[in-house]
Amino acid sequence: MKKTIIAGLLLGTSISQADIIRCNFTEPFVQSTYSMTKSTLTYQEALGEKKVIRNVSFQIKDAGIFELVGKHGKILQTLKLNKQGSDGMSDNVYPYEVKDTGFDMMANNGIGGCSSNYLKTESHDGK
Fold first, then answer.
1. Rounded mean pLDDT of 94-121?
2. Can you say whether residue 88 is alpha, beta or left, with left for phi > 0 and alpha for psi between -120 and 50 degrees?
3. Backbone angles phi, psi at 40, to 5 degrees
4. What residues contact 62, with CB distance under 8 A and at least 6 apart?
5. Does 95 sit behind a cis peptide bond, omega within 30 degrees of 0 on the bond before it?
6. Rounded to an integer, what distance in angstroms lies between the CA atom of residue 95 and that of residue 125?
């Protein structure tokens, strides 16, 4: 019981500090940015096109599993805090693995990697 409470407190601390979550996807090259303070999910394509979805909520589904949900209840992204996220191209390891269902042209089955203000990407390219 004590371990569960402590884990919950630690998880809550890392969540409350994750003001911005950035996710990277390849083919096509897309970056999504979720702002907790603005409740927006922004998609930025490599060619400069931008799509902003407003009124997006951040929901805790289970320990280390989160969902970004649109105002009509559609799940836009499911994030897993498992330190196994990948953008599909680089050797970087992201703290979050993400499955995106909010962007129409997503390849790689919408799988990507995300980092936040406090949980950074680890570079494994020898640098």
1. 91
2. left
3. -125, 145
4. none
5. no
6. 16
Distance between CA 46 and CA 101 in Å, rounded?
Answer: 19
**Residue 55 carries which side chain, given as an amino acid letter?**
N
Please give the structure tokens belonging to residue 8.
Answer: 């919950």
pTM for the whole structure = 0.81
How far is Cα 53 from Cα 15, in angstroms, rounded to an integer?
Answer: 21
First to last CA, the chain: 42
Element containing residue 97 per DSSP (H, E): strand 94-100
Model pLDDT for residues 53-67, shown as the tens digit of each residue: 999 999 999 999 999
| All residues at 6 or more sequence positions from 83 whose CB lies less than 8 Å from its CB, including other chains | 93, 94, 95, 122
The number of C-alpha atoms within 13 Å of 90 and in the hemisphere containing its C-beta is 17
Q: Any residues with CB less than 8 A from the CB of 45 and at least 6 apart, and which?
A: 28, 29, 30
